[in-house]
Amino acid sequence: MDAFYIILTASLFSISCGLLGSFLILRKMAMVGDAISHAVLPGIVIAFLMTGTRDSFDMIVGAAMLGVFTTFLIEFFHKRARLQTDAAIGVTFTWLFALGIILISLYAGQVDLDQECVLYGEIAYVPLDLWITQTGLIMGPKAIYVALFILLVNIGFLMIGYRNLYMTTFDPAFAASIGISVSLWNYLLMGAVSMTTVAAFDSVGAILVVALFVVPPATAYLLSHQLKTMMWLTVGFSIFISIVGYYLAVAIDGSIAGAIVTIAGILFAVVFLFAPGQGIFRSKTKQTQDATIEPNLFERENLT
Amino acid sequence: MEVLIEFFSFQDPNVVSVVVGAILLTASSAVVGTFTFLKKKALVGDAVAHAVLPGICLAFLLSGNKNPFFLIVGAFITGWISLVLVDTITARSKLKEDTAIALILSVFFGLGILMLTYIQHTGNAAQTGLQSFLFGKAAALVGQDLWVFGIVAVILIVTVVLFFKELTLIAFDEHFAHAIGLPVRGLNLLLTSLTVMAVVTGIQAVGVVLMAAMLITPAAAARFWTDDVRLMTFLAALMGAFSGLSGAFVSYTAPTMPTGPWIVMIISMIAIFSFFFAPARGIISNTVRQRNQQAQIMQENLLKELYRLGEKEENHFQERSVQELIEKRHFPKRPLKAALRQLKRRGYLTHHHGLWQLTQNGKAKGRRVVKLHRLWELYLSKYMKIEPDHVHEDAETIEHVITPELEAQLEALLDYPEVDPHDSKIPY
């Protein structure tokens, strides 16, 4: 039963991350996602110090705001100080992450977080933290409900915002011309990314959450020509890596999150090398063709 | 305070070695980072830094001890592989570079974590301390480690100094470097190797997680103070060294504190200070300059409109109220008042009983702006063949920019014309 709980939690979180990650990749913002996942750390610590627990709703909201603030800060350094984007990202997230680690070290006695937990989480403890109702009914691990809630919020957000996100991703100029606010949807997406990061933080840690955002959708991207196909494939891959990763970790007695990411990496490598239409072992002429049709790949999708 | 004196009196020989080590490591990565920054490849360093972890673990698994030489070799190999993979993925698939970096970074790190936890659970006694590669521990830098890492750092700095001109060239203009016969591929390879080496040594002080900051942040900060690459590299090294020194101090006084985050915090503070306060490029001086320019444009526009009103009513020295100006020319009220006060101070306007009047100087200046505006309109329609109803917007901007030399050339070129394309008289 413990194995089921852990795999279920991991799958739910990786689906959330993967769905949002699809948009991050297509918007060329994978590294911004990376930056956010590091930068929410001080938000988590501060919220923790203020509320004293780590599964509060305030904490998710607080850290989500910090994620949006990070996006704003990167833009600010880029636009106002005219710092090149890559450096703006690099400076911002390392600074905020360092701040988070320093806060953890300073309040080591009061914060039930340690540096290792921040890095790779502890999904193995998921089955231990049960949700017990006032009548004494055991409802199962809390983390599963958190993960489910986050997934539902994300699915709701993507269903409501699909059209606008789609437009602002593929043709921001056109989206702006028909009155869709590009920066509003950018910040909403970043808000969702931050919220998901914070929620998944306990289980997979700050850095491995990046892998869940990037690796399954990147693998799916290699295999698909339509956004919806890409997202469905991402869901499949997310579940697959959670299951196989868990058993790998059990087999060699290592970190579960680390194992899940390792499997995701192997899956990507296999697709990268052998996938039809993409694989490295395909002829080179085919690849140049791919490159030429690429800008139109997503255009034919029905937008309703 | 006592601790500070104790630390900086260098009586403890350990302090000397820790300080020397921390300064060398941070300064050498800052020097190398300057070039990755200039090549706009700053985040590649982040990928390398994370990818080093599985290499360290693998070296430990194979050798069974923490000999720094083995660890460096292991780290170097996986760091290198990660860079090659980022390039391959970008070149051979439709994934973009940022996705490739994030992907390689997180997968390698995940693999590293898996191996690290595996090593910890095997109960090998020698493994304690591998953890410190995550967040760095400058204070652990003594004895053999100091020698190995110190020598690598010195080699890095010397290599950069020797190849300074070539590295600068490929950072700014690869095509030119290629055209004059430099081995661009070889030099890129050199820079890649330098980056990997800088990461491998720097993690001793900062740790893999925050190593990217040691490559990016000093260079980004230094960029704000100078346009000279030499000076920039030197400043980056200096700032890096300062943060390294502070990190060593923290590591010495608070052994439970991870050093890396403090070093990064200090260098980040220096960088953010630079972003805001650096002369010429900083946000504050930028804002001030923009505001001055806007004020100048507003004042010139005001003089121009006063001149045109005078032209229409055939009395350039008509006294006007603020209200009248707003009604006739739609100026926003607050900037208008500020501009009026400024112009009075500079002797272009006089002010009596709430009414404003042009002085002789003010009239001349307003006339010049009107003249430039109309000359430019004429130039655009005559030489650029732009329709007369499309030239106004452009002239609105250029009238504030044209220098006296350009003015003379325009006059000569157009042969002192009488009227502009809208048949308004050009005043001289």
- Low-pLDDT stretches of chain B are none
Radius of gyration of chain A, in Å, reads 20 Å
Helix content of chain A: over 70%
Distance between the termini of chain B: 72 Å
Q: Could you say which overall geometry of chain B the principal axes of the C-alpha atoms support?
A: elongated
Note the main sheet of chain B. Answer: 3 strands, antiparallel
Estimate the global geometry of chain A from the Cα principal axes.
globular
Strand portion of chain B, in percent?
A: under 5%
Q: What is the H-and-E element order of chain A?
A: HHHHHHEEHHHHHH
Number of DSSP strand runs of chain A: 2
Helix content of chain B: over 70%
Structural class of chain A: mainly alpha
CATH class of the largest domain in chain B equals Mainly Alpha
Notes on the structure:
The complex is a heterodimer of chains A (about 300) and B (about 425). Helices cover about 75% and strands about 0% of the residues of chain A. By secondary structure, chain A is mainly α. Chain A has one domain (about 1-295): Orthogonal Bundle (ABC transporter involved in vitamin B12 uptake, BtuC), CATH 1.10.3470.10. Chain A is globular, with a radius of gyration of 20 Å. In chain B, helix 3 runs parallel beside helix 5 (about 95-120). The longest helix of chain B has about 30 residues, at about 285-315. The radius of gyration of chain B is 32 Å and the shape is elongated. The termini of chain B are far apart. The model of chain B has no long low-confidence stretch (mean pLDDT about 85). The chains are: A mainly alpha (about 300), B mainly alpha (about 425). Chains A and B meet through helix 2, helix 5, helix 6, helix 9 and helix 11 of A and helix 3, helix 5, helix 11, helix 13 and helix 14 of B.
Topology record:
The complex is a heterodimer of chains A (304) and B (428).
Chain A: H1 2-26, H2 30-39, H3 41-51, H4 57-79, H5 85-106, H6 115-120, E1 130-132, E2 138-141, H7 142-170, H8 172-177, H9 182-223, H10 227-252, H11 256-274, H12 284-293
Antiparallel strand pairs in A: 1-2
Helix pairs in contact in A: 1-7, 1-9, 1-10, 2-4, 2-5, 2-9, 3-4, 3-5, 4-5, 4-9, 7-9, 9-10, 9-11, 10-11
Chain B: H1 2-8, H2 13-38, H3 44-63, H4 68-92, H5 97-122, H6 132-135, H7 143-162, H8 164-172, H9 174-179, H10 184-206, H11 211-223, H12 229-253, H13 259-277, H14 283-313, E1 320-321, H15 322-329, H16 333-345, E2 349-352, E3 355-358, H17 360-383, H18 392-398, H19 404-414
Antiparallel strand pairs in B: 1-3, 2-3
Helix pairs in contact in B: 2-7, 2-10, 2-11, 2-12, 3-4, 3-5, 3-10, 3-11, 4-5, 4-10, 7-10, 10-11, 11-12, 11-13, 12-13, 14-16, 14-17, 17-18, 17-19
